[in-house]
Amino acid sequence: MVSIYTVHYNRLEFLKLQHEWLNKHCTDNFKYIVVNNGIDDDIKNKISDYCKLNNLKEIIIEQDDRISYCSHDHIVALDYIYINYISKDYSDLRVVMDCDIIPYKNFSFYNIINKNDIAGFYQHSIYDYSSAIFTVYNKTVDLTNFKINGEFGDSGSGTATLINSNKYSIFWIDITCPMKEAEGKYVFSQAKEGALNYDPYYWLQFISNCFIHFYRGTSWDNGDVDYFNRKIKFFLDFINNPDLYNVKLDEHVHYPKAHMDEWIWKHDYKLYKVI
To answer: How many separate domains does the chain show?
Structure first.
């Protein structure tokens, strides 16, 4: 059994998409667990209604001292579920992933973790850690008293205590960077007639050749409504017609790191070999 924990904050469309597409493409026996961290009472109630309608397990996050900032609220929600639920969950695999990560073809979490204890995206700040965007834990990983807190500057940085303990084997998942112009042109270079044009400001991200990450799906970066609407239109068209886009995902655009930039990490930027 695989337990999938996903925190939902303000975008109901991602709850429906993620749930339906996991049912469509995940070949594992899994439980989809909705962490209701709704930004306000209206959103919180709508998330609850969806869970009741679809008979989904729901964990409601109550925050009396809520700070209107997605990253802080996300850390509070993650800490709560790690301490009270994930650490006590004895499923074969426990998956924690963002609400805007959607599969577009068949996959198995067992293949993604690749017989390791932990699978995730490599991040580095003061210490190496796994980004909170997407992490898979084998049942061998003891999460008792574990906190995901963001003391190193990111909502996943608490995993540094696990990564640097040398107790567990780590598999760094292949991902694309949030794709700008060069990556977009390369990845979608084989798109067929009828596919929508990729805007380099979308910064979409592919994960393990089977997921697409909307990236900043809660709009915490204050993107305008027109931008979001254009981006979601492209996103929906892709997941409904992946064969039309015929994405080119190979060693030139795959990284184990959650972020990659042609200027900051110039010497590690693989596309320079082909452009």
So the answer is: 2
Q: Which residues constitute the domain of residue 33? A: 2-172
Lowest mean pLDDT among 128-132, 147-151, 249-253: 147-151
Tokens coding 98: 């963002």
Burial readout 32-57 (b: 16 or more C-beta within 10 A, e: otherwise)? bbbbbbbbeeebbeebbebbeeeebe
Task: Work out the percent of the chain whose per-residue pLDDT is above 70.
Answer: 81
DSSP string, 215-254: SSTT-TT---HHHHHHHHHHHHHHHH-HHHH----STTT-
Looking at the structure, tell me whether residues 146 and 15 fall in a common domain: yes
Does pLDDT of 273 surpass 70?
no
**CA 159 to CA 129: how far, in whole Å?**
5
If you average pLDDT over residues 111-131, what whole number do you get? 84
Domain end, chosen from 172, 189, 205, is at 172
The confidence score (pLDDT) of residue 217 equals 47
**Above 70 in pLDDT, residue 94?**
yes
Query: Which two three-digit tokens encode residue 249?
Result: 């995902």
Cα 96 to Cα 2, 211, 213, 218, distances in angstroms: 11, 14, 14, 17
